Amino acid sequence: MAKDSDYGAFMEKFVLQPSPSAHELPLSGLTFAVKDLYDVDGYVTGFGNPDWARTHPAATSTAPAVLSVLRAGATCIGKTVMDEMAYSIEGENIHYGTPRNPCAPDRIPGGSSSGSAVAVAAKLVDFALGSDTGGSVRVPASYCGILGFRPSHDVVSTTGVIPMAQSFDSMGWFARNPVILNRVGRVLMQLPDVDPVNPSQIIIAEDCFQLSAIPSDRLTEPLLKSVNKLFGGDLVKHAILGDYVKEKVPSLKQFMTEETADQENNIPSLAALSSAMRLLQRYEFKKHHGEWVSTVKPDLGPGMSERIWKAIRTTDENVDVCHSVRTELRAALNALLGDCGVLAIPTVLEPPPKLQCDPIRLEALLVKTFSLLSNAGLTGFCQVSIPLGLYDNLPVAISLLAKHGSDGFLLNLVESLYKNIQEEVGIAEKKGY
């Protein structure tokens, strides 16, 4: 069980040593932890649920992603707590306890990679591996005030990682420092060290920032001032993302309901994107795990049980339309960004909710949040969540998205911008923001 001195972040502690020539390697001297859906030879991969752990044998090999960071000189110190079957972005686990958010102890840490995010935020490790299907790296990174990177879909091996919904599953990682974030990414994606390329444009999704509970200036100004300082302000463009998506993704009409059309609380076309993504996720989750859930009938926490059984009852109706939405959205965002373009959106719409928050309110918030998260989810684009300090004593963040395969470019860009952004955040906080 997770120990309190470790902020409840760890399922179990062990040490996997790097290869002997560690002093010459890119991750020498760094420590890391892994989410409990990565195989580690000799250990049961628990998938956040005791019945899963009970019905599965110990792994007989280690996931390639874990091996690659070990071979690059890092030391693994254990496995981290996660949400059951990776089916949540809240970070609460009824069986193993909820890892404590070091940035806001009375708030949820975000999931499903909650333990990995907390281990980094609490400085227990230098970086940690998680996974991101619907938002499971981006959300806890935002809630815990650290950097979180979701790579382009399929560019990092997910062999030896329990699938959640395979056409969305991306592994991902957390760090407090952009240099380490970049270095880990280059190891995992086997990228050469290259000079940073300047972005061609930074597009601010105005409507998404207006939807946020945080004043939009508090989120965008640190980025805009940093971009202006480094690259010049003429790079910045503004867009109404919801209108653009509505026009360019005609298949979304199938998902436009009365609920998604509620203009006051969401952006209708992005809410429809979220519906398409969640339907496809449910369908794929059922394909992977339906038989096990139906046979074992695992003990599942409140909220989690309803979500998982809803997935098990999903049919393939409208799945073809979801694939059309995905194809159209990818083409639309490729056209919007062009080469070396970046889209800026809030990572989430509100600061982290309180622990044991009213489940109905929490579910409503998560549905809204998915309208932002589904942009990278459905396109397979890479996305990074960048902390912007505290607003009202709670962590806030901004995200940058780039085209599929632009991971090295985006990692370099974050490293270039980060120091300036943090300086601007400090100025904003002093002004009482």
From TrEMBL:
Q: Name one Pfam family in it.
A: Amidase
Q: Which residues form a coiled coil?
A: none
> Which GO MF terms does the UniProt record name?
hydrolase activity, acting on carbon-nitrogen (but not peptide) bonds, in linear amides
Q: What is this protein called?
A: Amidase domain-containing protein
Q: Which domain of life is it from?
A: Eukaryota
Residue intervals of the Amidase domain: 23-177
What is stated as this protein's family in its record?
Belongs to the amidase family.
**What InterPro entries would the database entry show?**
Amidase_CS (IPR020556), Amidase_dom (IPR023631), AS_sf (IPR036928)
Q: Can you name the source organism?
A: Quercus lobata (Valley oak)
Which gene does this sequence derive from?
LOC115981529
